[in-house]
Amino acid sequence: MVIVMQEGASEAQIQHVIDRLVAHGFNVHRSTGESHTVLGAVGVHRDFDHRDFELLDGVREVMRITQPFKLASRQFRPEGTIVDLGHGVKIGGPEVVVAAGPCSVESREQIFCVAECVAKAGAKILRGGAFKPRTSPYAFQGMGEPGLKLMREAADQFRLSTVSEVMDPSQIQMMLPYVDMFQVGARNMQNYYLLRALGEIRKPVLLKRGLSATMEELLLSAEYILSGGNYNVVLCERGIRTFETYTRNTFDLAAIPVIKKLSHLPIIGDPSHATGRRDKVPPMARAAVAAGADGLIIEVHNDPDRALSDGAQSLEPSTFTQLMAELRIIAPAIGRRVA
Ligand code: PEP
Ligand code: MN
């Protein structure tokens, strides 16, 4: 249930409604919008008459949310959420924010070289995995903490924010100084312990759609994080598994407008994992921006043919620079901009 308070409702009126909800056994999540305060009441259903709440002073409207996800639903924050990574990087506002970098951090030379090029091209966030969820246990598993350190240094030098994948709750504290946004990979979208642990912190989380997850399942996974009080969640469409085998995955572009309607959370596109082929990345990146994505995450490598992971889908720096120039032309057509 969502309770929209009247414009100018007093703090005492808001607190009274919160107290009544708590007395009914609800957990209350408060969202202070530009003009209205919205209270999200979640929890196990108890016998109560929602009209009792409509009559309370200062209440404008009481809405039952019929979808299984509540805090992630658009009704909870009709104006949309802007996730702030700090240093002026905001996902969900007018700017389409681009994260770029190698699939895995491999060496100092590599990460500094890629960071410099993507920063020059207009990316705001440096991506790079240090803990890699590889399909085969014999494939490169990532550099771990030393890789995160290198990534942070490179990002600081070129004024970029960072995003890197976390695979286990035990890694969160160690990673905090190195990342501005935690990535939950597709394979971990339903790792509920990890999601709950990320709900306890206040740093942004990039939640990637699972390989065969429905949009509703993605939003329910986001709900795990939100219900812990961490509202800084960015969703990511990175392709789903279908009967098609030509591309690595099938880029479900329709998920972008659908999720924008169902949820207030920003959503970005990952054309690299969605296609698995370097030559298909620019067209799908352009399409994602045209479809209304709030950002993109793109794999770029200084020497893709020698990359330790996902080289086939990694762009050469020059192709990435060219793509950014194209996105700068597309974004204004839909009222957005690219740095
Ligand atoms: C990645 O970002 O390198 C990655 C492993 O992505 P996904 O979880 O979407 O497969
Ligand atoms: Mn990858």
UniProtKB/TrEMBL annotation:
Signal peptide: none annotated. Residues 1-67 form the DAHP synthase ferredoxin-like domain. The keyword Transferase applies. GO terms for molecular function: 3-deoxy-7-phosphoheptulonate synthase activity; aldehyde-lyase activity. One of its GO terms (biological process) is aromatic amino acid family biosynthetic process. Residues 83-327 form the DAHP synthetase I/KDSA domain. InterPro entries: Aldolase_TIM (IPR013785), Class-I_DAHP_synthase (IPR052899), DAHP1/KDSA (IPR006218), DAHP_snth_FXD (IPR041071), DAHP_syn_2 (IPR006268). Keywords: Transferase. Its EC number is 2.5.1.54. It comes from the Bacteria. It holds the Pfam family DAHP_synth_1. This is 3-deoxy-7-phosphoheptulonate synthase. It comes from Candidatus Acidiferrum panamense.
